[in-house]
Write a structure and sequence with these properties.
Blueprint (H helix, E strand, L loop, with lengths): L5 H9 L3 H5 L13 H8 L1 H10 L5 E2 L6 H10 L4 E11 L2 E11 L2 E12 L11 H16 L4 E10 L13 E5 L5 E5 L1 H7 L6 E5 L1 H9 L8 H13 L26 H6 L7 H5 L12 H6 L10 H4 L11 H13 L6 E2 L1 H8 L6 E10 L13 E11 L5 E8 L8 H12 L6 E3 L3 H14 L9 H12 L8 E2 H8 E2 L9 H8 L3 H7 L58 H11 L4 H33 L2
Parallel strand pairs: 1-2, 4-5, 10-13, 13-14
Antiparallel strand pairs: 2-3, 3-4, 5-8, 6-7, 9-15, 10-11, 11-12
Helix pairs in contact: 1-6, 3-22, 6-8, 15-23, 17-18, 20-23, 22-23
C-alpha cells in the first residue's frame, strides 16, 4: 500500500495533480528537485530541529528510516505514562506521519511541529490556508484517528525574533554531515554544549489548536470536510491515479514543465483541456511579462501566450516621462517579441542626463549576506543580518578598471559585520566618487548593520560613531554621496529582448555582451584592456563564444562553488534568494564538516563569484558609457 505522508499532503496543498508526477521522478522532469542538504543549509531546518530537541532532555529519538521499525518503536514508547518522542511514527489506514516532537502526559498529547520560520514574539495571525497550519492540522488529524481517546494540543515551534541568544557560538554547536544523497544528519558539538550550554531558548512554542480545530471541522471552499478531502487524495494516490486539479494562471510556474515534452507533466495536464501543438507548449507565455500583476485576468480571458497579449491587456500606462513606466516596459517586451525585433531599446537622452551627474572615480560594490535561524553570537536574535563578503571595483575616467578591494570572513563563528563595514569604509573613503549598487540589497543590509551598531555599547565598539556616520553618508537619500542604484538605470532606460521578463544583473549582462563594442573589447584578455583582477589571471577572457558562435553567459564560465550546485544558478538581481548559492556556500563553510581542501576551494569560488558581480556592473556601465559618450 502506498502511504500518504506529510510531504505528499503538502504537495497536494500546492496542486494535487503534482503528486502523480512527483512520485514518478524518473518519468517526469522536475525543475524544483533540490538536494535536501543544500536546502537544509539555506533554511537552517536541520539545526533548528536539533536545537528544539535539546529543550526536551530525556526525549527519545527515533532515527530509523522506513515505516515498520519506527512504528514499532513509537508504539512501545507510547506505553509509558509520560514520555517525549522525537520523530514519532503514527499510522492510520494509509496515512503516515513523523511528528517532530510528541510530548505525552497521560492521555494529553502535545504535538509540536518545528519550523525554521520566524515570528516577532507575539502570536502570529496565521491564516487557515497557511501551509504550516495545514501541515499541523494533517498531523493532528492522523493522530486523532489513530488514538481517538487522546486529547491533542497542536503547536508550532518557531524562531522567535524577540529572543536573543544568551551564549556565544550557538549555531556552531550544530554541524551538518551529508551521509549520502538522501541522508543528512546533524553532528552535535557535545563538548561545546557541555561547556557553554544552550542558554535561554530562541525558539518559542505557539499553540495553534484553535486554527487546527477550524480546519478539521469546517468545510472547505468545495464544501468538503478535511477528512473527505485528504481521504480522496490518499485513496487516488494509493491506486496510482492522478488527482484532477483546476487549471489557473499559477500553472505557468509549474515545476513539471520540460523542453522534452515526453517528460512534461505540464503538457500532460493541459492536454486534457486544450489541443495545443507541441510548438505551443514551448512558446513564451504571458507569465513571462516583467512584473505582470494581471496574469489572472489574462488567463480568465484565454490570453495564454505572449503573442496574444494586446495593449489593453496591460492597461493604461504613462508615456509622458523619458524614463520607461512599468506599463511601457511591459509592452516593449511584448511588442519586440511579436514583431521579432531582437534589437535593444535604449533611451539615450535620459541615460546620458543621469550619467553626466556621476563623479569619477566610480565605485561598484556588491554584498553577499545570509540570515540564519540560530544566532551566531550572544545578544544576537534569529535571522539577524550577517554580511560576510563584498567585492569592490573602481572605474577611472580614463577607462581603467581596478578590482580594488574585497572582504570575506572565513573564520567559523566570528561575527563579521563591524569588520565588514570598517573594510568597506576604508575602501570608499579616499575620494568622493559615485558609488553604485545593483538593487536595494546593499542599502538594506547597511541599514540593518547600522541598527546593530546603534545597539552596541561604545565601550565595545570604539569607532561606533565613525561607522554610523559612514553608513548614513552612503545610504541616506539626501546625502551627497548616496549610492546610485544601477537597476533603476536599467529599468528606466534599457531593455533587450534576451532579458525577457527579468532585470536581474544575471539577465542584463549576457544581453549587453551581445553588443559589438562589448564583444570586441571583452573578447580580449583583461590584462590587455586595462582591467585588473584579484582572483583571475591577466589572461582571463570574459567574452567567449560557444560552438554556435553565441556569447556564453560569463557566470557559466565560473567553476562550481562546490560539487552539489553551480554558482551561476544564484540570482542576486532584484531579490536575494534565500537558497542562493553564495549564501549556501557560506553556510557550508560555517556549519558543515568538510575537508580543508574543499573548504578552501569553496572560499576561492565565493571570491571569484563576488568579483564577477561587480565586474558585471562595470561592463554594463562601460556599455552605457559607450552609448552615451559620457
Amino acid at each position: 500500500m502506498k502511504l500518504f505522508t506529510k510531504s505528499r499532503f503538502k504537495t497536494c496543498l500546492d496542486c494535487p495533480a503534482k503528486l502523480y508526477y512527483q512520485d514518478r521522478d524518473t518519468q517526469y522532469d522536475n525543475s524544483k528537485k533540490e538536494d535536501s542538504f543544500l536546502e537544509a543549509l539555506a533554511e537552517g531546518g536541520y539545526q533548528v530541529g536539533e536545537l528544539a530537541k535539546l529543550y526536551y532532555p530525556g526525549g527519545h529519538n527515533i532515527a530509523d528510516r522506513g515505516y515498520d521499525v519506527p512504528l514499532e518503536k513509537t508504539n512501545e514508547l507510547l506505553k509509558n505514562e509520560n514520555v517525549v518522542i522525537f520523530e514519532a511514527a503514527i499510522k492510520y489506514k494509509n496515512f503516515f506521519i513523523r511528528v517532530d516532537i510528541l510530548e505525552k502526559k497521560g492521555n494529553i498529547i502535545n504535538l509540536i511541529e518545528v519550523k525554521s520560520k520566524s515570528f516577532n514574539g507575539e502570536k502570529p495571525d496565521f491564516k487557515l490556508e497557511d501551509p504550516y497550519i495545514q501541515d499541523v492540522a494533517f498531523q493532528t488529524f492522523v493522530m486523532k484517528k489513530a488514538f481517538p481517546h487522546w486529547q491533542i494540543d497542536s503547536f508550532l515551534m518557531l524562531a522567535d525574533k524577540s529572543k536573543a541568544a544568551t551564549v556565544n557560538g550557538l549555531n556552531q554547536m550544530f554541524r551538518l554531515i551529508k551521509e549520502s544523497a538522501e541522508r543528512t544528519s546533524v553532528l552535535l558539538n557535545s563538548e561545546m554544549i557541555k561547556k557553554h550550554g544552550i542558554g535561554e531558548p530562541v525558539l518559542s512554542k505557539i499553540n495553534v489548536s484553535d486554527k487546527v480545530y477550524k480546519i478539521l471541522t469546517e468545510p472547505d471552499k468545495d464544501n468538503l470536510s478535511f477528512e473527505e478531502k485528504v481521504t480522496h487524495w490518499a485513496d487516488l494516490h494509493s491506486k496510482g491515479q492522478q488527482i484532477d486539479s483546476e487549471l489557473s494562471h499559477m500553472c505557468f510556474s509549474c515545476e513539471f514543465q520540460s523542453e522534452d515534452l515526453s517528460k512534461s507533466g505540464f503538457k500532460e495536464c493541459w492536454s486534457k483541456h486544450y489541443s495545443w501543438s507541441d510548438e505551443e507548449y514551448t512558446k513564451p507565455k504571458m507569465s513571462e511579462i516583467w512584473n505582470n500583476r494581471k496574469k489572472k485576468s489574462m488567463f480568465d480571458k484565454g490570453v495564454f501566450f505572449l503573442d496574444q497579449v494586446e495593449k489593453e491587456d496591460i492597461g493604461d500606462f504613462d508615456q509622458t516621462s523619458i524614463a520607461l513606466s512599468v506599463g511601457e516596459r511591459q509592452w516593449l517586451q511584448v511588442e519586440k517579441y511579436k514583431t521579432k525585433d531582437n534589437t535593444p531599446f535604449i533611451e539615450e537622452e535620459g541615460l546620458r542626463n543621469q550619467m553626466q551627474s556621476f563623479n569619477y572615480p566610480l565605485h561598484f560594490i556588491d554584498f553577499e549576506t545570509c540570515m540564519v535561524a540560530i544566532p551566531f553570537y550572544k545578544g544576537q536574535r534569529p535571522y539577524e543580518q550577517i554580511a560576510f563578503q563584498f567585492s569592490h571595483h573602481i572605474m577611472h575616467k580614463s577607462g581603467k578598471v581596478e578590482h580594488k578591494t574585497e572582504f570575506i570572513e572565513i573564520e567559523r563563528g566570528k561575527f563579521p559585520n563591524f569588520d565588514f563595514v570598517r573594510a568597506l569604509k576604508k575602501a570608499l573613503e579616499n575620494d568622493n566618487g559615485t558609488i553604485f549598487r545593483y538593487a536595494a540589497h546593499e542599502k538594506t543590509v547597511l541599514n540593518q548593520i547600522l541598527k546593530q551598531i546603534e545597539d552596541t555599547n561604545a565601550e565595545n565598539l570604539p569607532d561606533k560613531e565613525e561607522l554610523k556616520k559612514f553608513i548614513i553618508s552612503i545610504t541616506g537619500d539626501r546625502e551627497e554621496r548616496a549610492m546610485v542604484d544601477m537597476l533603476k538605470l536599467v529599468k528606466d532606460f534599457y531593455y533587450h529582448p534576451r532579458m525577457k521578463g527579468s532585470n536581474s544583473i544575471k539577465a542584463v549582462l549576457p544581453a549587453v555582451m551581445e553588443s559589438d563594442y562589448v564583444k570586441d573589447k571583452y573578447s580580449q584578455p583583461i590584462g590587455k584592456i586595462n582591467v585588473t583582477s584579484i582572483n583571475f589571471s591577466d589572461n582571463m577572457t570574459w567574452c567567449q563564444l560557444d560552438d554556435n558562435g553565441q556569447v556564453i553567459d560569463p557566470y557559466k564560465l565560473l567553476s562550481p562553488v562546490f560539487n552539489d550546485i553551480i554558482i551561476s544558478d544564484y540570482d542576486s538581481g532584484e531579490t536575494v534568494a534565500d537558497g542562493g548559492a553564495a549564501m549556501t556556500a557560506f553556510a557550508r563553510i560555517q556549519f558543515a564538516e568538510m575537508p580543508d581542501g574543499q573548504r578552501n576551494s569553496t572560499i576561492e569560488s565565493l571570491k571569484r563569484y563576488c568579483e564577477l558581480d561587480t565586474l558585471a556592473m562595470v561592463i554594463i556601465y562601460d556599455y552605457f558609457r559607450k552609448l552615451t559618450g559620457v
